Structure formats: C-alpha cells, structure tokens
C-alpha cells in the first residue's frame, strides 16, 4: 500500500496540501459546509436541552407539594432524558468528564441499562478501563439478551488495554451473534488488528465462517476489504469520493485511525504516526478512534 493515500485524505481537511486533486478539494468544501451546519445544530440542541432542564426543575419546585406520584415519575423520566441528551452532546464534543457527569445524573434519576452502558463507554474514553469493564460485564449478566449492545463497547475497552486475546474472543462473538451487521464489520477490523498484534496468521486468511457472516458492502466493509488485501487504496478513495450528501469526517476519522493501528501492528511507526495525525486532522474529537490516535501519538517515538 502506497503512502499517497494519507496526503489525499489530508487534502480534504487542509488547504496547504498542494497535491490535492479537484475531487478531494470538492470533498474538503463539502466537509466544511457540513461541519458548520453540525456545530450550529449541536449548539442549538444544547441550548434547547438546558432550557428544557430549567423548565422541568422550576415546574417540580413550584408544584412540589401538589404533584402526585405518577406526575412526579413522568417529570423524573423527562429530567433523566434531558440529562442523557446533554451527556450525548458532550460526548460528541469530546468532553467526556462532562458527559460522564450527565450520564450519571440520568442514571441516578432513571437507572436504565442503556444509560449504564453509556457510563461504561465514557469510563473507557477517559482511560478508566477497569471501571468501564466492570460496568459492561455487570450488564452482560443483568441483561443477557442485550449482548449485541454490550459486546462492542467491551471490545473497544479491551483494545484500549491492548488485551488482544479478549478482543479476539468478543469480536468473534459479535460476528456470530450479529451477522451481516455494521457491528460485525467493526469486529472484523479488530480481529485483523489483533491477529497482527499477536503475530498470528495473515489476516487475509480470516476464517471463512467469519467472512460468511459479514456484509462488506456496508460501512466499514470497504475498510475491512482493504485491510484484508482484497482491495487497493484507489478503491477506498473512490468509495469516499462516491458518497453523496454524507458527512465523511466520521468515516475518515475511523479509516485513518485503523490504518494507523495496522501500520503500528506491523512495526512501521513512522507511517502509523502519519495516519494518527491524519485522524486528528478530521477534528471528530467525540469518536473513540480520535482518542486512540491521541493516546498513540503520546508514546510513539
């Protein structure tokens, strides 16, 4: 795989790259337009949520003595929902301490399993892996029918700890329990990277049973095929250039990060560093991959 792919993708986010093609320049402008739109919408969303919180708190205070049990329960649920929406906003912005704070408030008001899962995810994002791992394992025991929602965060948690044996184990479970899904495709990426880190078989020879349970046409299928050697970098670039009316930053953030992980796993630290830097250039700081790249750049020499 040639190194030019980094510069093409970086061209989407930086005017200083002279080798940017016309199509990449158009993608850059497209990305800017959608970036500004998303920032405005998120700020408006945050304002609406804070206003909603204020109204609910005022209502509860003024009617504290007259609200019956059912009404109070509904207000508490609304308040919990508003807290979780604020938490989600902060998580998207990469402010994980604030996100964790609001998720915890939401859970204290209305202890839903999905909110507890999000608390586990935020602990992972903050680097408190043991706390996140404990919460997610507790949920697997409490809600055994919800493995498809609990396993992906566990895989990410173990990957951040570089516990690749557990990454392999849980990733395979995801593919078998949620075949042909987006989560299965992400699990395949983690299997490929774990095999490399553990110096196992060439990832191109991914178990045929696992491959049969993947739908590589949907995202991140094109990246999976690229990592397995079933497509070329030109195919991956073409995939992005053919996307219509989509914000590409998230997919590019993931792509740059996992290519960085790929080259790090095979010992090319210089190229890995360039891909991690390209990950940060996407500015999608709420993505777990953005955090991975930040961490990697902290100790790759």
From the structure above, extract its key features:
301 residues, mainly alpha, 73% helix, globular, 15 helices, Serine Threonine Protein Phosphatase 5, Tetratricopeptide repeat
Q: What does this protein look like?
A:
- The chain contains 15 helices and no strands.
- The protein is mainly α.
Compact description:
The chain has 301 residues and is mainly α.
* Secondary-structure element string: HHHHHHHHHHHHHHH
Helix content: over 70%
Q: From the coordinates shown, what is the CATH architecture of the domain at 63-145?
A: Alpha Horseshoe
Sequence stretches where pLDDT stays below 50 over 5 or more residues: 11-37
What does the main sheet amount to? none
- Number of extended strands: 0
Question: Under CATH, the topology of the domain at 63-145 is which?
Answer: Serine Threonine Protein Phosphatase 5, Tetratricopeptide repeat
Structural class: mainly alpha
What is the percentage of strand-forming residues? Answer: under 5%
Radius of gyration, Cα only, in angstroms? 21 Å
Total count of helical runs of at least 4 residues: 15
Shape: globular
| Overall pLDDT | 78
How far apart the termini lie comes to 22 Å
